[in-house]
Amino acid sequence: MMNLDWFCSISDIVFWVLPLLFLSWLGYSLAKHSRRPTGVVQFFLATLLVFVWNLLKTYHLLVSGSLPLGKVLLGESLQLLAMLLAVAGSKNLLKVQEIKIKKLIPIFLGGLLFIWIIPGCLFSLDKISLTKFYELGVYNTSVLCLAWLYVTLGLMAKKHFQTRANLAYKATIGAAAVIFVHPFLRMLTSFLTIPSGRLYLLGAICISATTICVLLFAFVIWFLIREISQRGSKNFVSKEFLIQKGRAKKAFYFIALTSIMLLTFVVFWGDKSGRAIRETVTQQFNEQQLMLAKQAASGIEEFINKRRDALMVIARSHSTESPGELVRYFQLLYTTMGGFLAIEWVSPDGIVGVGYPAKDTPTGFDCRRSRRSNSGKSLYDFLLDAKLTRKSVVTELIWLLEDQWGLFVLAPIYDEDEFKGILLGVFYASD
Which pTM does this prediction carry? Predict the structure, then answer.
């Protein structure tokens, strides 16, 4: 079943990974000409961690519909670690371009404090649990780090663009503001019960916010790529840090080795996780089938018990009446309750007498000649059980004269101590 987490997980893959991927490429391009780190390693590690986490999260949500709380907390913590790495990388990236960020640091720290205060207030009001407080705080911090990366690209555009610099900077600021729709929706759904119809509306808002972010971010990326292609990445590096041979080759080897190791881990973990999910799905299916079987058995038992009780009422209330007079009660029970193939009177010596409907009543049939059940008992054996116990008896499955499996409900008729026969309800097993 789709929920808000599912919508957000699909959009997360786009707006988390895209800026990190672009910053990895940008850091690598500048590393060719800089003697100082450009953050390429941090960006690349952050990209891999965020991509793997969001991919696995989406896979779990699509297959099983939910994620265990422990995996959610672990994944969100890894994503926060990745985003902190990216923020550290952005500091190096801006430094090699001599872009000042001192004025933005207080704003970043103030935002960090604010986004922890909101879940803290919800926790203090007992609206959310401690684990939910941690989950929301970690996710909000990750979003704040992502907003910082958007602003980082805006600062680069403002410094290097020859035209539309302010427009590009405002676009990244707008994208940084819009992405806070995600943590707001998360906090909203953490303590409010959202109807299913509105849940899809929130999912649409979530995807719309992602679309706006991607479009604004793509606008800035387009101009950055155009500037680099026209002027060359060398001109983005400050002359103070400019050298002929940079760190790109070493970074490339590190990236290649890290990619191989991480992909190996993902394949191994994915295979193990896939087997665990298949086992869980199989177990849930078996439990569901068992529950349905129990419900069916309970329904069958209730069905039989009602008709057995009705036969016992007739047997006890009309024990002095003749078999012919009992037929009218058979007809009434047959038409009102339903479910019977036939209702018959069997003589004390086991011979079928009258019944309703007459066409389904084998008058004169000797119960001793009936087919036997799997336990080897004939219908006459069950008749003797009812006679001796003076209680109703439900037979095992017996092959009927109609060439189908069926069962019988027997209600003994006693007039004081005189045994006067058996009332026999006949049922198809398929019914």
Answer: 0.57
